[in-house]
Amino acid sequence: xxxxxxxxxxxxxxxxxxxxxxxxxxxxxxxxxxxxxxxxxxxxxxxxxxxxxxxxxxxxxxxxxxxxxxxxxxxxxxxxxxxxxxxxxxxxxxxxxxxxxxxxxxxxxxxxxxxxxxxxxxxxxxxxxxxxxxxxxxxxxxxxxxxxxxxxxxxxxxxxxxxxxxxxxxxxxxxxxxxxxxxxxxxxxxxxxxxxxxxxxxxxxxxxxxxxx
Length: 213
Hints:
This protein is mostly helical. 57% of the residues lie in helices and 9% in strands.
């Protein structure tokens, strides 16, 4: 009997249902889960970036509104209380309030190009509005907000003050000794411009990235 089993051989024992052959390669379920997690993380990052951008845009327009409001209110007070009156000395003759109408650019330059300056101011506003969509830097938001508020302040004068639309004279009233007379809109534009120059020197872009030359 033993000799017969040796000759015939031992029959193969079938694998039980619980015994499965080992699989080689990555697990499809784990791969799908990893891809899903990656897509979810990417979506969360995009949502966070969008929220951050919206906050910077809100800062830009908040600064612009404040700058515009201060300029508009100050001009209304100057026109009502100071125009056609004697200047008011604030710091002796070093700083005084003296209302004038300026048909030129900031600080009284270029009075023969009023329409051109009006168009430039409008173009600046459009450029800032377009740039705001890619804004992720707080300092840039403040700088652009100052520029926008100042440009809107002087553009309002160009559009609604005499002698006519696009040719209106800007109300200036801050008169330092030995310097041109200007207004709060001019100050906002200059401060915003200086801040942009400083940010550019530091290599900070409006989208928040920092580059080095």
